[in-house]
Amino acid sequence: MQTRTVAPTLLLAAALFLGCADQPTGLSGTVGGPSFQTAPAFDDGVLAGQLLAFGSDRAGFFNIFVMQQNGMKQTQLTNVPGYNARPNWSHDGRRITFTTCRETDFSCEIYVMNADGSGQTNVTNNFTTEQMSVWSPDDRKIAFVSDRDGSQQIYVMNADGSNATRLTDAGGILPTWSPDGARIAFETDRDGNSEVYVMNADGSNPVNLTNKFASDGFPAWSPRGDKIAFRSDRDGNGEIYLMNPDGTAPTRLTTNGADDYYPAWSPTQNRIAFASNRDGNFEIYVMKPDGSLQTRVTTNPGFDADPAWAIGVAK
User: Fold this and answer.
1) Beta strands 260-265 and 63-68: pairing type?
2) 228 within 8 A of 257, measured Cβ to Cβ
3) Range name among 18-22, 55-59, 214-218 with the lowest pLDDT average
4) Considering the chain, what is the average pLDDT of its residues?
5) How far is the C-alpha of 13 from the C-alpha of 56, rounded, in Å?
6) Best CA proximity match to 113, nearest among 5, 9, 219, 31
7) Which of 27, 24, 4 is nearest to 15 (CA)?
């Protein structure tokens, strides 16, 4: 399976020809602005790991939803024509950053919103493709992917979008921070095929962790920092694997003839969410870190993917 990046020509064409879109608003009707103080989508005091955000086209366009970890109480957070997906929770549980391609922006941009979908704010404002945003462990920075310099590279910026700094020169997508904030793992095809690399948080010392004649990608660093989950087709089709942060001891977790991708750790490190089409269309599944108890948590004819756990405690 090819990496599911945002295809600029297709998604931008869709966003630009969908007709007039409303102003970026949450379902509460609040016009997007730099206000991140409202309550989360569920009751106050939501514990880390109780909620999963995800992207889905079940409403006709790709939008972001949130649900309990067992699939209950599925709630739509964005409601804007175009593409709204790849959510990532801040570590305090109050904000979500995501990728969106909207007619009003004329490009794909990085947004930040409150956990209830309100206050949707464009933090990149750049007429290029910006995508795949993830919070740093201290929530002060956001790593993301941009082609503003002509090719897809990884950048880091302040959480308000200021001071964007390029980290890679040879290509990179799908960044994921180590829990101490010192390193970033990412996917790159700089060696001729997709591999998982790790680099220092300033972009220095990039190292190939996978080194396989296969497609390896979608890295996800575990909360304790001792494992990296990733997707690989080294055994014939896309499956979820674990490895140590130095690339040793790769272990296959899923075994089926379908395509499994986009692993996401729960904050307690006792579950991994992922997307799979094993039941005919892409849905969200959850399993234990040893691959056992694989459980489907969405059941919808739409395309459900991009799972992201609530990391912190929202009050």
Assistant:
1) unpaired
2) no
3) 18-22
4) 87
5) 19
6) 31
7) 24
* 89 phi and psi angles, rounded to 5 deg: -80, 145
**Intra-chain end-to-end CA distance of the chain, in Å:** 40
DSSP state for residue 287 in the 8-state scheme: E
Torsion angle, alpha carbons of 82, 282, 197, 139, to 10: 60
Give Cβ neighbours of residue 273 (< 8 Å, ≥ 6 apart): 52, 263, 264, 266, 284, 285, 286, 297, 307, 309
Nearest-angstrom CA–CA distance, 229 and 244: 9
Per the DSSP assignment, residues forming a β-bridge with 267 are: none
Cα 231 to its chain centre, rounded Å, is 14
Taken as a whole, the chain contains a residue count of 315
Six-digit token string for 61 = 């366009």
Q: Are 92 and 312 in contact (CB under 8 A)?
A: yes
Alpha-carbon distance of 141 to 95, in angstroms, equals 13
Greater pLDDT, 43 or 180: 180
The CATH number of the structural domain formed by 8-309 is 2.120.10.30
Is the separation of the CB atoms in 287 and 307 below 8 Å?
no
Cβ atoms within 10 Å, residue 161: 21
Residue type (1 letter), 247: G
Question: What is the three-class DSSP state of 9?
Answer: helix
Say how far residue 18 (Cα) sits from the centre of its chain.
24
> E-assigned strands of 115-227?
121-122, 130-135, 141-146, 153-158, 165-166, 173-177, 183-188, 195-200, 207-208, 216-221
In 3D space, the residue among 22, 26, 8, 43 whose CA is nearest the CA of residue 126 turns out to be 8
AA identity, residue 276: S
| pLDDT at residue 48 in the model | 66
Place of tokens 């094993």: 278
From the centroid of its chain, how far is CA 75? 18
Write out pLDDT tens, residues 192-211. Answer: 999 999 999 999 999 999 99
